[in-house]
Amino acid sequence: MQHSVSIRDLSLNFGNVKVLEHLNLDIAQGEFIVLLGPSGCGKSTLLNCIAGLLDVSGGQIFISGKNVTWEEPKDRGIGMVFQSYALYPQMTVERNLSFGLRVAGMPKAEIEQRVKRAAEILQIEPLLQRKPANLSGGQRQRVAIGRALVRDVDVFLFDEPLSNLDAKLRSDLRVEIKRLHQRLKNTMIYVTHDQIEALTLADRIAIMKNGVIQQLADPHTIYNKPVNLYVAGFIGSPS
Ligand code: ADP
Ligand code: MG
User: Which one GO biological process term can you cite for this protein (predicted)?
Assistant: First the structure.
């Protein structure tokens, strides 16, 4: 079976510091994988390698069977949503959603159709003519998700997309991300340090410590059969 994402023997050093070491991970088409671990364990670094925002020190990354290790981010078939919203402040929501497609030279009619669909899915249609400054945190994060959505990518990467939001919004958007996944059935790799998010969203959770995956399993197994004290302590402690 061809995996959606395959990470082979991936290493990444910052200078002399080894952040990821010989990491392997196979993700099936349509799977929702959560990378869970404490701050500094290498979650964002791993995601940035997959996205092509960092050059790897060793190993390979395959997306949909293709070796993308040295491909440009835009050629990898991925969309990324960050913790900070990274919207263009001077552009309307509609422009924020369509900008990348315009740059890529997509026909106008198709751009309009894609923006409309994304806005409908994320329930941001009434916000299309507003600018980011006039949106709430939750609305901004929906727009950020929308920007990945319009590109119709195979793989979504999320880096702690909800951690800047208050508890109520966080749980609302968590439900929406789950719904989005059920509707799109694409592959999602979702970074968090929040065990509740991990347990509710994931098909499988990868628990990370110091750049190494300690356990990779479904939430039930992680919760009931942690492989070591680290995993047990991390999943059992309040977030
Ligand atoms: P996480 O996302 O799990 O909090 P990161 O992937 O951001 O962790 O960081 C992993 C480790 O790499 C940390 O020790 C961090 O300090 C270090 N690190 C991250 N980015 C850089 C960088 N650009 N230069 C040097 N060290 C970095
Ligand atoms: Mg991080």
Answer: carbohydrate transport
At residue 237, does pLDDT exceed 70? no
- pTM for this structure? 0.92
CA of 119 to the centre of ligand 1 (A): 34
Phi, psi of 182 (to 5 degrees): -65, -35
Q: Please, which contacts does 69-77 make with residues 24 or more away whose CB atoms are closer than 8 Å?
A: 76/50, 76/51, 76/52, 76/155, 77/153, 77/154, 77/155
C-beta atoms surrounding 142 within 10 Å? 23
Q: Do the bridges between strand 32-36 and strand 187-192 make them parallel or antiparallel, or are there none, so unpaired?
A: parallel
- For the segment 193-216, the average pLDDT, to the nearest whole number, is 95
Neighbours of 148 (CB within 10 A): 20
- Residue 16 contacts by C-beta under 8 Å, 6 or more apart in sequence? none
Angle at 74 between CA 69 and CA 77, to 5 degrees: 75
Residues 35 and 61: beta-carbon distance below 8 Å: no
Q: Residue 40: CB within 6 Å of ligand 1?
A: yes
Give the mutation target among 10, 17, 41, 45 for probing the ligand 1 site: most ligand atoms within 8 A of CB.
Answer: 45
Q: Judge if the beta carbon of residue 41 lies within 6 A of ligand 1.
A: yes
Please state, in angstroms and rounded to a whole number, the distance separating the CA atoms of residues 107 and 134: 29
